[in-house]
Amino acid sequence: MNRRTYLGVLAGTAVAGTAGCLGDDDEPTDNGDDSNDTTENGSDGSDAETDSVGEWVDDHIEFGLPPFQDAEDLEEQYAGTFEWLADGFDGVDAVEGVPTTSYASVVESVVNGHTELANLSPFIFVLAQEDDIHPLAINWSHGSDSYHTYIATREDTGIEHIDDLEGTTIAMVDPMSASGGMFPRHRLNEAGLHAGDLETEPEDFDIQWAGSHDAALRVLEEGHVDAAAYGDFEHPDDDDIIKIAESDPIPFDVIVAKPDTPEDVQDELAERLVDTPEDALEDHRVDEYGEFDPDLYDHVRDIAEEMGLDIETLDEAEDEDD
């Protein structure tokens, strides 16, 4: 998969993200080599950090929002985060959400610096990482930085192991879904079954695309399919539904910063995000923002390559849905 060819073919008017990579854990000092963080009162490090972010932006920060949800819903979810960020830095009057209409536009925008910050899904993040965006923090949900795909069946099918799925029909969510498409197909490939990729159909079983996690589980419960793959958050408390396999951990989305973000600004933004209080996230699907861990995304990159995923593939799928 060529992760660098997309920049030459995308329109340059889109939006995208920000966030910076985490530096070391040392606190900045007043005499740091790269410090521009002097304050009017000659005060301590926290005031210095506040000034450097304010100097980096022109009154406001623009935050690219990907198109995985209705734009109005996303802005409502992120309102508390935006207010928390804006209140943390002198010289920042507001953080504004910038909706996008395609995954390509999010990547193009953050790589070219049209916006300062963005939220990128795991697969989009690994596609853009080689172009020097800076990861700041990971979205956490239900107290974790990752979740799993479950592959399950009914007790009455006689299926006991993942390799028993040859010749069956499996309900999944969507070809582009991480936990309901790409990760379960990868897991089936690992088990020795031909699971296909984004361009080819599986040879050893059939897939019924259900459109959502709850729908995939429902068609299994109703007996329309032999097995189903869905996010672990959908697994029922029901002895009749038996989990036969699960994926490796799937990391959540990453908040990133544009390539030319100064290191001290990256550190300050990352620290502010990690310190986001619970009440700022009451309306968000995110419980907290955690420190970025690069090792979490190595496996995502491998699966993207295995599945033939690139930016153009994502946009072609979006066009088909329009």
- The order of strands across the largest sheet is 2-1-3-12-4-13
Shape: elongated
**Whole-number mean pLDDT:** 81
**CA-atom Rg in angstroms:** 21 Å
Estimated structural class: alpha/beta
Low-confidence stretches: 1-50
Q: In percent, how helical is the residue content?
A: 25-40%
Second-tier CATH architecture of the largest domain: 3-Layer(aba) Sandwich
CATH class descriptor of the largest domain: Alpha Beta
Number of helices: 9
Report the CATH topology name of the largest domain. Answer: D-Maltodextrin-Binding Protein, domain 2
- Amino-to-carboxy terminus distance: 25 Å
Residue fraction in strands: 15-25%
Biggest sheet features: 6 strands, mixed
Series of H and E elements: HEHEHEHEEEEHEHEEEEHEHH
What can be said about this structure in brief?
31% of the residues lie in helices and 19% in strands. The protein has 322 residues and is an alpha/beta fold.
